[in-house]
Structure formats: structure tokens, C-alpha cells
What does this fold into?
Amino acid sequence: MGSVDVTTAVTDGIVVRGWALDWTSADPVEVAVVLDGKATALTAMASRPRADVKDVYPGFDDRRGFEITVPAVRGPHKVCVTARGRTLGCGDVTVTDGNFADVSPASAAAVPSRWMADTGITRGFPTDWLFSPSIVLNRAQAATFLWRLMGSPSGPAACGWNDVAPDSTLAVASCWARTSMVISGVNGDPGRFDPQGPVTRAQIAGMLWRTAGQPGVAGRSRFTDVGDNAWFADAAAWADVHGISTGVAGTNRFDPGGPVTRGQMATFLWRLAGTDAAWAVDRPASAVRN
It folds into this structure.
């Protein structure tokens, strides 16, 4: 018999506390963890001091408590503890500080996406628990990420975009992007922001470069598919020199027309925030990664 008394969310996991005993034995009982309906390899001996248990069951000593830290990604979880084939109890807990559930710890986006969440640059998509690293970045997301990187500066909610409502969550970020000359209109239409439009690698290089203050770079990039006179040549050279973009698939190709995923954007932002020499403007603490 026993009980799960406490389930508490911590960074990257859940702490579970409780007690257990076996009427037929004076020895400590081994307990095991079930997370979200699946048995785990986590076990512990219920041998921690629990004077309150001894008070209720004076025939046993006080070493009947257990405490287990269960690794868990962001999101809601149900954690249960079993002993001798019986469930002692369960608890529902939401982990808010940890890796996204859909980002493998071994992936290139793992550290950057976690950094973005920890610094408030992203809140996840489509929920707070998922990052969606393989989804193509759109212009609304790009503007919002860059705006938050720069400290979410206050500003107008209306600035001439005819497809961004002043009361939308995108309004201030999109106006910051416009007035800072980070993002301009699409297809020659200065009033069209195109929030859901996909972002290419050439476009994101330009956005990042302009956010950093358009630093000058001597020469051109090593990318074989970026012409010297391309509109994004300076941005691509800057991204190359400072290691913001290292090309695609281990080659010297930049793939300017290729789409940018959310995972790739996380990596670009993480690299930019960690590269002092890539900046030509003063930046807020939110854009500095130690």
C-alpha cells in the first residue's frame, strides 16, 4: 500500500513524492513510474524518512518514503507510481520549462529552440508544448521572432499594411519590421505584408542582416549559387562570414529560393545572438546570448 502525495513540475521533468510499504515485509518496497500510460525504467526504493507514515503504522519504521525525478518534455503529463503490481496513485502536472515535445534532443534545433522559449522569443506552435521545427516559416512568424529578439519594442499598431489589422497580435511586430526597414511589402505592393507567405532563405538572410544593422562585409560569400549582383548578396556574404548560415547539406550552396523552416530560423537566431561581430547596432539584452 502507499500513496503519491506530490507531483511537481521542475525544469525538464516532474518530481514525484510519496510513500509505500508491504504488510508482509519489513524491507523497503521498490516503486516504479508510469508516465502518460507507459511504463518507464525509473524505479526507487521507498526508504526515505517519513515520520508521518510511522505514526499511522507504528509496526513499521519511518523509512517508507520515496522521491523520484521523472524526465519530461514540455506539456501536460499524467504520472503514476506502482509497487508490487498495484498503482499507488497518480498526478496530473504540466511541465512548462523544458524541451519541446516535437524536437529531438539530438537535433540541430534542440538547443536553439529551447533558447528561444527560455528567452520568450517563441511560445511554441501550434501549442505551447510544440515547436513544429519542420513547418515552413511564414512572414508573420519571422516578424514576430525578430521583434521579440530585439526586446519587443513598443510602437504603432497601424503603419500602412492593408492586410494586418491594427488589433491583431501581429500589428506592432509587423509595424516595427516596416518602420525599421527589416521587412517591406511583397510583389511590389508596399501595403501588402502577406502574413502567411512563406519565407525563403534569401529573404531571411536579408531580414536578419537588416535587423543587425546591415553590417558591411568585404568581398562576397563562398556560396556558388549567389551572384555578385543578387539583391541579397551582401546579406548572404554577411551570413557566411559570421557563420549565421553555413549552406545546405554540407555544401557551398545557399539555396536562396529554398524555404526556411522554423527549426532553421531558430538556429539562425541563436547563432546571431551569440555573435557579437555580426552586429552593427546596439542590441538589447534579449538579443545577446552568452
Summary: The longest strand covers residues 86-95. Residues 211 and 283 are 10 Å apart (CA to CA). The two ends are 49 Å apart (CA to CA).
